[in-house]
Amino acid sequence: MLKKEENKGEHLVVSAEVRIFAFDFKNIDLRKNMLRIAVQSKGRLYDDTMNLLSEADIKVSASKRTLLVQASNFPLEVLYLRDDDIPQSVASGVADIGVVGENEFVERDEDAEIVSRLGFSKCRLSLAIPKEVNYPGLEWFQGKKIATSYPGILRKFMQSHGIDTHIHVITGSVEISPGIGLADAIFDIVSSGSTLVSNNLREVEVVMQSEALLIGNRDMTPEKRDILEQMLFRFKAVKDAEDKKYVRMNAPKARLEEIINVLPGLKSPTIIPLADEEWCSVHTVLDEKRFWEIIGKLKEMGAQGILVTPIEKMIL
Length: 316
Description:
Blueprint: E1 2-3, E2 35-40, H1 44-55, E3 66-70, E4 76-81, H2 86-92, E5 97-101, H3 102-108, E6 113-117, E7 123-130, E8 145-148, H4 151-160, E9 166-169, E10 185-190, H5 194-198, E11 201-210, E12 212-216, H6 222-240, E13 244-252, H7 256-262, E14 270-273, E15 279-287, H8 291-300, E16 304-310
Parallel strand pairs: 2-4, 2-5, 8-9, 8-10
Antiparallel strand pairs: 1-3, 3-4, 5-12, 6-12, 7-10, 7-11, 13-15, 13-16, 14-15
């Protein structure tokens, strides 16, 4: 494994022999064609990304003591970095692809392509002010000092609205800035809003929505793009199965047409004859959001023996 070296001035100083595992994956020479993905080294985005890889049956060691870890059953190696280093590492080719928050990707403004929106680690970038302050509108920020870790996004937003502000760039706990007199307001990530409340702040303007993105280097080789497509195929199978239930039931043939009409199946339900000629077995997939509503209707129509199974992966 690659070991991380101590170097305060650099994030990507590595030197060690990489052990190559023998995979059987479409006869690819893995010594030349290993897809490298940059992943945040800790935090919520790290957890969500590693869960997605696991659900896609890509097995990666969870060790955080190494900078570069190779999957044991897929031609992929994971490079652990700080989130703000990921856009540059992908744009420069240090990594082929990377998982990064949309907020960081837009802020860094690096030349990489968005491969896919992953749908997790959702948040928003918002302006917040002390809760006791009267807020008449965006013009309130004219001439105000705003603390943020995202000066690029904030500057463009204010310029687009003709507002002149003083941007104070800060890393770490931005939300404490108004309380200690460092700034009049903040511009920061908001998820639940509980951090704002605990610091006597209130959200007044949402500037952008953010989620995890899979970004890619524009100059990937065809061989690496082929591996990427295989990985995206697995990700889609996992995503399509979210909040879906596989449902089996016994239904009276006399009411079969009514039952089929209330089933929002992917195409049409599967109908299987039973020993009792007046009954059949119906198999379908239901969205969890409408599950109880539809199950109630099915029972009213005489459906019995309803079995529900969660779906792990689904190929459409």
